[in-house]
Structures are given as C-alpha cells and as structure tokens.
Amino acid sequence: MTAPKEAPKTGAVHPARVFSGIQPTGNLTLGNYLGAVKRFVEMQNSGIETIYCMVDLHAITTWQDPSDLKRATRELAAGFIASGLDPKKSILFNQSQVAAHAELGWIFNCVSRMGWLNRMTQFKDKAGKNREAASVGLFAYPNLMAADILAYRATHVPVGEDQKQHLELTRDIAAKFNNDFKVDFFPITEPVIEGAGTRVMSLRDGTKKMSKSDPSDMSRINLTDDADTIAKKIRKAKTDPDPLPDNLEALEGRAEARNLINIYAGLSGDTPDKVIADHAGQQFGQFKPELAELAVAKLSPISAEMARLMNDVTEIDRLLGDGADRAAAIADPIVAEVYDIVGMVRSRTGNRHTEGNK
Ligand code: AMP
Ligand code: TRP
Predict the structure, then answer these.
(1) Range(s) for CATH 1.10.240.10 in the chain?
(2) What is the pLDDT of residue 179?
C-alpha cells in the first residue's frame, strides 16, 4: 500500500495520521478482518502514525450486557494484537478512556444537522421499523464517529464499504465547523476503502453483508472459530451448481460465487482476477476445500494467539491504559483548541483543557 502523505482540500497542511475504530460487540468476523483489521496492519507497517480504537461508546447505542461488553472489548484488543497490530507501533485503546471523544461528540451534535443524520442508512437498518424506540445515541452515532476521527485531526480512515456514508458526514461536519467558525482547523478526511475485502458477504446469502449480528453463526467466520468450524462453514456455504468461469464478468448475478472468490483474494493477497483465472473450470466441490485450507492457514494462528492473550487480561488492560494515555496526549490539546474556538471560558486550575486557552 502506498503511504498517503497529506490530506487534501484545506489550506492547512495536516500531517498524515490514520484513525479507525471497531465496535466491541461480539466476535470479530472475517468481514472485519479483511475489510478493516488487515488493512490497519498494512498501514501501521507502512510507517504512518496509526491510531486504532475499540469504540465502546458506540457499542452502547444498542443494548449491551455490561459484563459482555468488558469481555468483548478485551477480546477485540486481543484480536487486534493477534492480527499484527503492535501496541508499540500503533496506539490501541478503548474510546471511553479518552474523554475527548465524548466532549467533541457533543460539540458535533451542535454542528451536525438533523437532515444529514436522517439520511444515514445504517440508522435506518439498525433502528428497523420501530424508530421511536431507538436510542438517541444510535441516531447521533455518526457525530460521535466524526469526533473520534477529528479529535486526532486524522487524515485517513481505513474502513469497509458500509462506512462510506458516515465518512462523508465526517467531511461535512469538518467543513461546516471550519466554515462556521472561519478557521482552517479540521482536515477533510479521506476514506480508505480498497482491496477485495471491503464488502465480505454472508456465507448464507450473497446479497447481505457478513455481520457479527446475523442470527445465524453459519453466515460468518469468526476469528475465534477453530479449524474444523471454519472448514465446515465454508463447505456448507451457499453456492450454485455451475463451475467457475475464467473471468469476473461472467460471475455477474452469482453473488455467492463472487463472494467466495473475493474472500479467497482477500486471504491470499491475489487480485480477484487472478483467483478466478487460477480456478477457472473448477466445481465448488474442488474450490471450497482449497478455500477452507487457505482460510484455516491464515486464521487459525490468529485465533490461537487471541486465546493466549485472553489468558492475561491484566496485561490487555495495561496495554489499553497505556494506549489511552498516548491518545489523550494528542486529543486533549485539540479539543482544548476547539473549546476555545467555540467560545467556552476555561478557567479551572488543573483543567485538562486549559493549555489550548487563549
Ligand atoms: P463494525 O463491526 O460494524 O464495528 O465494523 C468494523 C469495521 O469492519 C468497519 O470498518 C466495517 O466497515 C468493517 N466491516 C464490517 N463488516 C464488514 C464486511 N462484511 N465486509 C467488509 N468490511 C466489514
Ligand atoms: N461506525 C464504525 C462501524 O460500525 C465504527 C467506528 C466508530 C469507526 N468510530 C469510527 C470507524 C471512526 C472508523 C473511524 O464499523
């Protein structure tokens, strides 16, 4: 991956800084891995400053059992590290430990517009038919996401395809803030949505995205699945009776087949074009065992390492605390400046935010 150097479109030059987040709600799936975590690791290793967050404040926009949430947060941290994120190279932490997120989130609640949020398709999907019963937090979710990113003035955000609309809103919020207060303060963040894994689909239905929250566990591969489970899920994945063609265009209308080719490409690092050319003419009876073998080879070391890390929760908590200290050292002065720009009087001695006061 080529390292992006700076964010475009504002007069101020913001140094390249990557931020992304994942909700600690249930297992990490193969979708999260290929769409997000794998690329987090590539960006970390390309030498850019990288900050990755377990967004526990986002998680509670829908009901979470408190003890499950703690476990899921630690398990997500273990999943990050087992996948190759290095707490020395990247800043890894959980959102609620850095107050700047909630603070800037409130400011953005006052910058963002109801009309903008009303267009968010994720809210519509998650709230379902009974919108009256959805939490206010679920509606304002994208404002907090903008705060996550802009509290660091991050310039690049690697995510899966489903987050594109939220990142457009982040850009709108940054631009409106800059414009309302006549400042050139926030960068206009670039989404980084690339590669074969940006939209991994359900193994049961090639038109639905693979999701932690799908009621059927057979629809997804979890990073905690053992080798037999991974192989079984791939063997039982929905497909069609036709053999694989020799080019991607010929897969038009065969969503499940296309998804398995993409997954193979995401795991192997080859392009989908190469994968289809290499497997042209195969029946799924042949292709699936090869895919299963590849998936097990790539994923089982991750699940073994996750299990090992989860044996020492104290160490995980220590790493998250250390990451949160480093994150706050960046975000607090930025939020201090925001408070000043907005016109808040800051006069308490010992206030975290007085540094930015003018
Ligand atoms: P979430 O689990 O919703 O917090 O998503 C965390 C990250 O994983 C985001 O960048 C999503 O875009 C990405 N992601 C989630 N599901 C998928 C999927 N099925 N395919 C590709 N990326 C995904
Ligand atoms: N909304 C993202 C998701 O559900 C998670 C998220 C929260 C995020 N804050 C973020 C992603 C900031 C990127 C940057 O997948």
Answers:
(1) 217-310
(2) 98
